[in-house]
């Protein structure tokens, strides 16, 4: 879903949040923005730049009061970098000072310099993960160190996807539902690790992803509260109410993957200074932390969500992409590519002999099917049970031609109806 910052650039990257352009290990200069250009000084608000510097631990060390401030980064880079940032854009030299400050950031060796530039280029809410692992594992070289970084990266992606799924709809278990649109919603997100491999930051553009950041903030805090309740009382009913805040099996499973093998993890959300604080949220949200002692409660919640999520009655329209039955007569299995009626890509169903015949004829003439039934959570909501009202659907000529072309390209699938094979 995301491309790692240290993967080769050859080939096509899979869809999802893009890797954050952080420093290459052998280079000293920080990258500028996702396009390689500095933000336009005329479009930079000095107050926003100051807020980002402060968020990343930079210190203001003097300057003319009410006119400009001098900022230095935390850590070893403090003596090598100094930014002169105007307090407002009202002075004649404000734009020049901002241009010089942005250039100094691009040349700075401070790890946070590139992150600040990205936040200026694309106003984004920032979601941060950190993972405490035993020193023996954290300090290991080669495969062990890579495995720790990949665990953090993979779990963070899953947490983002769980948030995007919750934006699409509340459910204790989403399964295959809503995933296509949830992944598409993550397209603009930048994601990449900080040096050391134990921290990670995702930049969620405000214009397209503010709902995702707010949803994750609410869901993570609701998860923390439900876990605390379960550990204190032994009751898991708080997880039922947490579904309304966006908690799901997908989120609890992602948190389990993040916590497992660690000494503790934390997740924080920081709002984009340029966009302000979302309604109903605190200006400076408290980080949410989980420890290995929370794993039993998280596992219990995930099992509860999987067990209790009800089947959904649906009326699906889909194109037949696969058919199979054991002989020339009787019931058979049909697979549909869903066109409408449910937010899943494909469903599989068993049809009686007459309905199976209707499905085969509809496909041969390039028409989709309409069918009613129950979308079962077993298998991730990919199975339709109790199929009824099976009938072909008339479509326009362009869609019919496209479906016929699909048949010609996938004719081998339909030879399986005679051989009895299935994927």
Q: Describe it for me?
A:
- With 423 residues, the protein is of the alpha+beta class.
- The chain is 39% helix and 21% strand.
What distinguishing features does this structure have?
13 helices; five-stranded mixed β-barrel; 39% helix; 423 residues; alpha+beta; disordered N terminus; six-stranded mixed sheet; disordered C terminus
Number of strands: 14
What is the share of helical residues? 25-40%
Number of helices: 13
Can you list the strand order of the major beta sheet? 1-6-7-5-8-9
What is the average of the pLDDT values? Answer: 81
Contiguous runs where pLDDT drops below 50 for at least 5 residues: 1-16, 18-35, 410-423
User: Span between N and C termini?
Assistant: 24 Å
Bin the strand percentage: 15-25%
Strand-and-helix sequence, N→C?
A: EHEEEHHEHHHEEHHHEEHEEEHEEHH
General shape = elongated
**What's the gyration radius in Å?**
26 Å
Major β-sheet annotation: 6 strands, mixed
Could you say which structural class the secondary elements and strand pairing correspond to?
Answer: alpha+beta
């Amino acid at each position: 879903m995301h491309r790692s910052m240290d993967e080769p650039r050859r080939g096509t990257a899979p869809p999802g949040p893009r890797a954050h352009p952080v420093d290459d290990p052998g280079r000293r200069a920080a990258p500028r923005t996702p396009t390689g250009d500095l933000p336009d000084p005329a479009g930079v608000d000095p107050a926003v730049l100051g807020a980002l510097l402060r968020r990343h631990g930079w210190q203001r060390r003097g300057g003319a009061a009410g006119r400009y401030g001098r900022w230095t980064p935390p850590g070893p880079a403090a003596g090598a970098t100094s930014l002169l940032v105007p307090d407002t854009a009202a002075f004649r030299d404000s734009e020049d000072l901002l241009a010089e400050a942005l250039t100094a950031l691009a040349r700075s060796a401070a790890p946070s310099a590139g992150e600040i530039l990205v936040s200026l280029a694309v106003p984004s809410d920032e979601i941060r993960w950190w993972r405490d692992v035993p020193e023996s594992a954290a300090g290991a070289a080669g495969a062990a160190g890579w495995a720790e970084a990949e665990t953090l990266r993979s779990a963070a992606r899953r947490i983002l996807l769980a948030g995007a799924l919750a934006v699409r709809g509340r459910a204790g278990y989403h399964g295959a539902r809503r995933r296509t649109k949830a992944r598409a919603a993550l397209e603009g997100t930048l994601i990449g690790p900080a040096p050391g491999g134990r921290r990670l930051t995702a930049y969620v553009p405000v214009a397209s992803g503010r709902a995702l950041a707010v949803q994750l903030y609410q869901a993570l805090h609701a998860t923390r509260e439900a876990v605390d309740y379960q550990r204190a009382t032994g009751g898991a009913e708080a997880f039922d109410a947490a579904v309304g805040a966006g908690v799901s099996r997908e989120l609890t499973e992602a948190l389990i993957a993040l916590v497992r093998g660690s000494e503790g993890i934390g997740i924080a959300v920081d709002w984009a200074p340029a966009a302000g604080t979302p309604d109903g949220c605190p200006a400076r949200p408290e980080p949410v932390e989980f420890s290995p002692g929370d794993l039993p409660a998280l596992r219990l919640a995930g099992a509860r969500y999987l067990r209790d999520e009800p089947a959904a009655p649906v009326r699906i329209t889909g194109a037949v992409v696969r058919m199979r039955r054991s002989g020339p007569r009787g019931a058979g299995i049909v697979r549909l590519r869903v066109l409408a009626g449910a937010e899943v890509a494909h469903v599989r169903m068993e049809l009686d002999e007459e309905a199976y015949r209707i499905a085969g004829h509809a496909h041969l003439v390039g028409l989709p099917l309409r069918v009613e039934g129950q979308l079962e959570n077993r298998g991730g909501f990919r199975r339709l049970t109790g199929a009824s009202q099976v009938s072909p659907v008339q479509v326009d000529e362009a869609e019919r031609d496209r479906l016929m072309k699909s048949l010609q390209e996938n004719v081998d699938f339909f030879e399986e109806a005679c051989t009895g094979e299935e994927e």
